[in-house]
Amino acid sequence: MLRKKALNRIYLTTLVLFIMLISFTFDYLSEEKNTKLQEIEYVANLNTTHIYLLNEDNYLVKVDILLNKKDVVETAREILNNLSVNNKKYNNLKGIIPSNTKINDIKYENNIITVDFSSDLLKVNSYLEEKVIESIVYSLLEIEGVRNVIIKINGENLETLEKSNKKLPILLNETFGINKTYDIKSLKDTKKVVLYYVFNNEDNDYFVPVTKYLNSKDDKVKIIIDSLQGNYFSNTNLSSYLNKKTNINFTLDEDILTFTFESLNEENLESVTYSLASSVFDSMDVTKVIFEVDNKIVDVRTKS
Question: What is the distance between the alpha carbons of residues 304 and 46, in angstroms, rounded to a whole number?
Fold first, then answer.
């Protein structure tokens, strides 16, 4: 009798422990599942975009950032906040909009985003005045659907920069240029190309678009190759992984450009293809760039 009662107690105890274990496991798995779902939801609510911050040589550098998924107006506001001089997230790179600048209003309509700033926007040194506009315009153009930018100061269109007296178009886009340099000696054979150089910051590579105006009878592809094979730009910290000794041929078939290399360092392949393709896309009416090494396709890039 006692043995039977003891066995019953053991059975009941074991059953309770088993039920508790099952309950605990279920709760743990449910909690883990909810945590993972929250993590997935958090990642799903993030967007990668680019902004343009100033380096120590006063070049605007293309930087990747993560933003919460929002509508165009709120995304623009978050981007502009990241362009403030108060942004100190990146060593040796900084925002360019003066800290006292207020955003009076932002509107988005027909692929045009209009931002109304306070007059503090242009309270910068004369050599940075145009950089402020470039940084704002190119950063906002990274937003999907935005094709043009209008900048206002206290409700009035910004048509002239105060210190340089430079005239600005009402609609600002890529044609305005960024990190502009001029090598113009006459009005003949003038060309404009955009060159993507590399800026190394604490062992991290960033890309720097440079809008170059020059006199040349060469086609734009050759200008791009020759410029990037210079391996450096003036006396700055900008460089290129495209070696001078690298033999490059190219063919243009309508809107598809193919680069053919005899050999290419695989370690620098990503940087070389990105630099060349981005330079081509921003300079020419090309929609696809194909890269071949030893008659094998190693990369294909499409204009976004």
Answer: 19
